[in-house]
Amino acid sequence: MIICIGAGPGDIGYLTQRGAELIREADVVAGFDAVVNVVQSIIPATAEVVLMNYRDQVAQLDAVAKAHHQGKRCVVVFMGDIHFSGFQYLERVERACGHPVDTLPGISSAQILASRAKVCFDETTFITFHRRGDLTPFKRHLVHVLEDARNAIVIPCPWDAARSFMPPHIATYLLQQGIDPAHPTEVWENLTRAEAEWHGTLAECVDKTFSDMSIMLIRTLAPMDSQIEAAPGT
Ligand SMILES: C[S@@+](CC[C@H](N)C(=O)[O-])C[C@H]1O[C@@H](n2cnc3c(N)ncnc32)[C@H](O)[C@@H]1O
């Protein structure tokens, strides 16, 4: 009676058919305002919409859990895919319900970035700083990823000034850790909607400003050679 679904990266055209079906059949559709907006056009007129923000999410999820326990079909919509930078919200949903809940993956902003920038998942590591708690292990892991000659797709943290870890902060941190300033770096904003892209080096990223809706790609300086068979005639 309750399922968490990935709503995709922003344009409803990227919502999966199964996700759309679940929303069309829902009695309750819940989520952060910006994410509910993505699917607004297919929410049935009869459905109750429960909007939330960072401050009231626990109370609002309690209301959704109550509806779920009353037997209503509830859908909680997540930005992009649940499985990248969505698990803390999922944990809140499960805590409110008192049990594990089903999930339906969506298309992540990381997948759209990989497609735009033509990077292969196999040679790329995904890291988010958009989470509560200690970011230190994630920062350290990013250093290791680049030292290990892999690409990194990174979701920055846009919150308040004390915690903000946006692309310029990430670049500054990496340079302080001895990472080569020449790493090709890209920042993509508002993927699938009003897209903007910036391309430069890690060093050049230090004094740039980007919106909250940004995702970063730091390319390895040593991309892997092709490992497929030699082309005929070579
Ligand atoms: C809590 S994370 C959720 C990410 C989401 N689960 C996903 O798979 O894309 C939210 C952050 O993801 C990034 N993001 C999400 N959608 C984006 C988009 N369409 N374009 C650029 N960045 C995006 C932004 O940094 C945003 O602040």
Automatic annotation (TrEMBL):
InterPro entries cross-referenced by the UniProt entry: 4pyrrol_Mease, 4pyrrol_Methylase_sf, 4pyrrole_Mease_sub1, CbiE, Cobalamin_biosynth_MTase
Pfam families in the cross-refs: TP_methylase
GO biological process: cobalamin biosynthetic process; methylation
Keyword terms of this UniProt record: Cobalamin biosynthesis, Methyltransferase, S-adenosyl-L-methionine, Transferase
Keyword field contains Methyltransferase: yes
Pathway assigned to this chain's UniProt record: Cofactor biosynthesis; adenosylcobalamin biosynthesis
UniProt-listed Enzyme Commission number(s): 2.1.1.289
Enzyme class per UniProt: transferase
Residues in Tetrapyrrole methylase domain copies: 1-204
Cited CDD domains: Precorrin-6Y-MT
Protein name, per record: Cobalt-precorrin-7 (C5)-methyltransferase
Organism of this sequence: Glaciimonas immobilis
Higher taxonomy: Bacteria, Pseudomonadati, Pseudomonadota, Betaproteobacteria, Burkholderiales
